[in-house]
Every structure is written in C-alpha cells, then in structure tokens.
C-alpha cells in the first residue's frame, strides 16, 4: 500500500491509537514486572513505585493539587457512575440531579435509571449552537440538588461548556459538581487546583493510552462513597487490583499530552480548520454544527443535508477515510443523535451529520486527500436522494407517508 | 461496522435502477424520517396486462436501505402487480443474503413502498398501519411496540410467555430487563385490581364499625374478597382465602395475578378494603407465609 492510499483515521473522539512510547512503557508490566503492588516483596514494590509515578503524571496533566486526588478506575463510564452514585449516597437528604440533554450515554442512561428509582433529574437544554442557558441552570439549582454533572466538552461537536462558572453556581446551593471531561483532557489546558470542581472523569483511550483505564479526580474534602468496596486499593476508594500496565501507560500518555498541548491547539487546530473550510467551500448544502467559536481544537462536525450518515461513512471508508456519524443507522437505534436533535437540527440534516476528529498524528497530506474525496461522495449519494433534484434540493417537497 | 453481506455491499456501492423513472405511472413514497429512511419507488406498468415493465428508486437512507431498494426493483421487474404484491420483506432480505436484525426495517420499507406504488397506479389510497418501536430483542429483531401489543392482546405476565408468543428474549436473554419493563408498564396500565392509591372511598362505612362475632367477621371477610374477585378475573387472575388466623388473612393469588409485577400492590389494595370493611386492622398475606408470620 502506498502512502497515497493508506487509511486516514479521523475518528479520534471515538478512540485513539496508543502512542508507541505508551506501549513500550507498558510491556515490562506484562512480563518481569507482574507483581501485585499490594505485596510486601520486591516484585510488588517496583510496581507500586511505577503506579506512584503514573499518578504524579496524571496529577500534572489535570493540575490537581494533591496526588491522592487521582483515583484510577477501569474507564470513563465507571468514573461517571462512581461520581454520581457517590454524591447521592453521601447526601441522602438531597434527591435532585442536574445534567444536560447533550451528555454522553454514560451519564444519561444512568440518570434515566436513577429517575426510575425515584430521583428527580433535571436536564438542561441547549440552543441551536449547543450552548447552555445559565439562567435556566440557575433556576434549576435548589437546596435538594445533590449533584450537577455537565461535560467539559461535547463528544459530537466539541462544544465547550463553562464548567468553571457552573461549579461556583452549584456550590451556592451546596451541591457537588462533576464534569465528564473525557473529550477535553489532553486537548485543552486544565488546571483543577484553580477551580472548585469536585469530581472529574477522564478516559485513557481518548488520549493515546490503552482502553480499560480511566481516572476519577476527587477534590480533597469532597464527601465520597465508593462504588466498589473490597481491598484497600486507591486508599479504599476504588477496590480491585490495579490495572498496573494500563495505569503506567496512562501516565506516559498524560506526560505526552502535556508536551503536545500547544501543538494540539495550533497545528491540529489549523488542520481541522483547513479541513472544515475546504469541505464547506466545495460542498453545497452543508454546515458545521455546535459552537464553532468555542470548541475543541480537533473536532469538526458537518451536517450534509438530504443524505444519510451511514451511507456517507461506508463510502468514506471505501475511500480509506474513517469518520463517524450522528445518524440513527450507525448506532442501530431509531433516532438520530440526541445532541443534534437537542440543537434543533432538522432530521434531514441530523441524519447526515459527519464527525471528523483529528489527532496529533494526522498530516497535511491526509487532510488534502479528505478535502478532495468528500465532494464526490456527497454528490453520489445526493443523486440517489428523493430530496435532491438536478441542481440542488427539490423545489416541490418530497413528503412520504411516514410510519 | 455492520456485518453486511457481500450482496448488500455490492448493491449499495453499485445500486441498480437508481434515479427518476421517466413515464412512471405508479409512484410510492414511504419512509420514516426519524429513523433516517425515506424511499420513492417508481413503476412503469403495462396497462394491458398489469406487468411491471420497469422500476426505479430514490432513497434517503443507510447502506442497507439503499441496497434493499435496489434489490426490490430487481425482484419486481417483469412481475405482474399481483405477483409483486406477494413479495415479502423477508424475501427482499433473503435476496440480499440476509440483513442485520437492526436493519430488517429497511426491507419492510421496501415492501411498503411497493404497496404504496401499486395503490397509486390503481388510484387507491394506501394507509400505513405499521408502527415501529425501539429494538428490544436483537436475536429475533422484535421491537417494543410489537412486544407491547402482544402482551396486551394476550394478557402476558412473564418473560417466558413473551418469548413463547413473540420469540423476543428467547435467544441470548440479554434483553430480559427491557421485556420486564414493558410487562411492568402494561401491568400498571391494564390492572384494574385495587391498589392502595386507587382504593374506592366507601361513604357508607362507619368510622368505628360495630363489634362483629367471629362468624360475622369471617362472613364479612369472605364477602369483601368475593366482591373483589370479578375485578381480578377481568385480568385473568383470581384469589382464594386459605386461612384466617387472628389479624392475619392468608390468600392464594391465582391465574395472571401469580408473579404479576403488581402482586404486592394488589394485596395492599385488597387489604385496605378489608380494613375498611371490618373496621379493624388486618394483614393480608400470601398463603406461602402461612405458619411463618
């Protein structure tokens, strides 16, 4: 395979490639460094030191004040569940959860379940660019609010929420504040000691560490109840033998993310902007979604009207380009992306939303190839679409009998 | 990525009969924009013998929707309208060497477009009676609307019954929580048995009932239970008294009441009525508790 047709990976908000340096650092922990860090002998001791080093690196990336504020978990979802369930257990006199309509299923599905259990869930709406209304948020807060959980950045559009301001508002009613920051960590600078944020979730595989490792940041002094009880690992706040190799990998990934933070916000951002401008200039009837002036530097989500996202992805894949879509069909659900619907994007456009998410590994040549490939793919599908005429959207409305 | 057959991929990448059909005399527009599919099927029918001379489609939809549309046009060309109407959605799926369960609705849409196009040619109006819900059972592609309809129509109360009637839940069993939720929802909707919240307010019951003899008390308990039985029988359930031991009244719930999600609420509601009828506190317990309470 020549360079010109090597696959192009633009789905880094779904997951990222492990950095080779991460893999190298992990390998000894599958072989000679197999000890249990809880053991007294030297096999375990060395692993214990390695975990300590990894914890310090994650602490630096998050700007956490204390090393003990970092709790290693198995994934972002576990961190999210732990945070919300802890807040409810620790404050039984409070029964309200405030979150947003555009959260990841890791939050929304848990909240639906807790609603059935009798908790009151308030879901803040967003405007057509995916922004929250701080007045709506303020009026939702009450002395019964146990926890507010709002994502730092949206996985589909990259839109950034004002979490630092939101946590201060939550604290005025004595509520805890959690942020699902799995998309933000490693892409934008975070300095938790300068914020009041109580809890934060991160996921290793979104920043070039392996899958199966995450972190719950827990600010010192925040009332907490563990989800997993058992051994004394993670100071008894998350029992279970440490996933040593992956934690070591996450430590290296955190260090690399810190080193590349400026690059991410200059070069990666430049390539993202080039890609988006290139597509918008050559493809009619498409528009970027989300808050384009306040979003992650790596994410571009474009709605292509009158065609469906899975079909776009299949043709992109044939051209060697990996992206993702908010269409219903890609997930097997019947509804298009809840994020697109929350922003009021019409169904005919929501089904055609396509997310391109870059990483520091993408090159200018790759972006040029994508810009060149996309117009023909969109045109090919529009030729099949009953909503599309010879030269654009059909004048007379195509109004099928809907099921 | 979906596990599409080679034939699905081939018909998606190189769809047959795509585009506007000049001189079409039967057009069917169907779809469900919410689930991301819409299809226009165009037919050119020979009025002399009702044979489909040509067919074409335009589809807004995913890979399998486009492939199903393409397959449909290939299948029906050359058939008479009556022959074409016999084409089932399973036939479309089989022709493509199968579709993933989540995608079977794409073949259903093809069949509906065909019915709509033929109705249009014949000057009839086509009504869609198909409602689609969230996919619950992925093994057998059964959705929530279908399960709920069958549960209601047949008074089903257990996951096993649902599996026997619809196949849903009979495979890998991972959807049982979803099926139980539907059962609980239907039980709540259709159950006419009294619950503590919906108890009737008897205006004629005195606040302090006169003291009853043991015999009168038993008769009163029996009468109260008898008055409730018709309500339970309407839901294919029933109740019988097993033993009266002081404050404890032991009963057997029967038929559909057994294992019903609303069992506890039903007992609670009947107990409330007994308390009111007798003017004293009693406990209504399942007979299985006999000798333990």
SSE diagram, text form:
The complex is a heterodimer of chains A (403) and B (293).
Chain A: E1 8-9, H1 20-26, H2 42-62, E2 70-73, H3 76-90, E3 96-100, H4 105-116, E4 120-124, H5 134-140, E5 145-149, H6 163-172, E6 176-180, E7 199-203, E8 214-218, H7 244-259, H8 261-282, E9 286-288, E10 299-304, H9 309-318, E11 321-322, E12 324-325, H10 328-331, H11 338-342, H12 347-350, E13 353-357, H13 364-384, E14 401-402
Parallel strand pairs in A: 1-11, 3-4, 3-5, 5-6, 6-7
Antiparallel strand pairs in A: 2-8, 7-8, 9-10, 10-13, 12-13
Helix pairs in contact in A: 1-7, 2-7, 8-13, 9-13
Chain B: H1 6-13, E1 26-32, E2 37-46, E3 51-60, H2 63-76, H3 81-85, H4 89-95, H5 104-121, E4 135-137, E5 142-143, H6 144-154, H7 159-166, H8 176-190, H9 214-234, E6 237-245, E7 248-255, H10 263-278, E8 283-286
Parallel strand pairs in B: 7-8
Antiparallel strand pairs in B: 1-2, 2-3, 4-5, 6-7
Description:
The complex is a heterodimer of chains A (403) and B (293). Chain A is an alpha/beta fold. Chain A contains 13 helices and 14 strands. Chain A has helices spanning 20-26, 42-62, 76-90, 105-116, 134-140, 163-172, 244-259, 261-282, 309-318, 328-331, 338-342, 347-350, 364-384; strands spanning 8-9, 70-73, 96-100, 120-124, 145-149, 176-180, 199-203, 214-218, 286-288, 299-304, 321-322, 324-325, 353-357, 401-402. In chain A, the strands form three sheets. Chain A has a seven-stranded mixed β-sheet, with helices on both faces. In chain A, α1 (20-26) packs antiparallel against α7 (244-259). The N and C termini of chain A lie far apart (46 Å). The relative contact order of chain A is 0.15. Chain B has 293 residues and is α+β, with helices and mostly antiparallel strands. Chain B folds into three domains: 6-121, Sufe protein. Chain: A (Alpha-Beta Complex), CATH 3.90.1010; 135-190, Arc Repressor Mutant, subunit A; 214-289, GMP Synthetase, Chain A, domain 3 (2-Layer Sandwich). Chain B has helices at 6-13, 63-76, 81-85, 89-95, 104-121, 144-154, 159-166, 176-190, 214-234, 263-278, and strands spanning 26-32, 37-46, 51-60, 135-137, 142-143, 237-245, 248-255, 283-286. In chain B, β6 (237-245) and β7 (248-255) form a beta hairpin. In chain B, α6 (144-154) packs across α8. At the A-B interface, α9, α10 and β14 of A face β1, β2, β3, α2 and α5 of B.
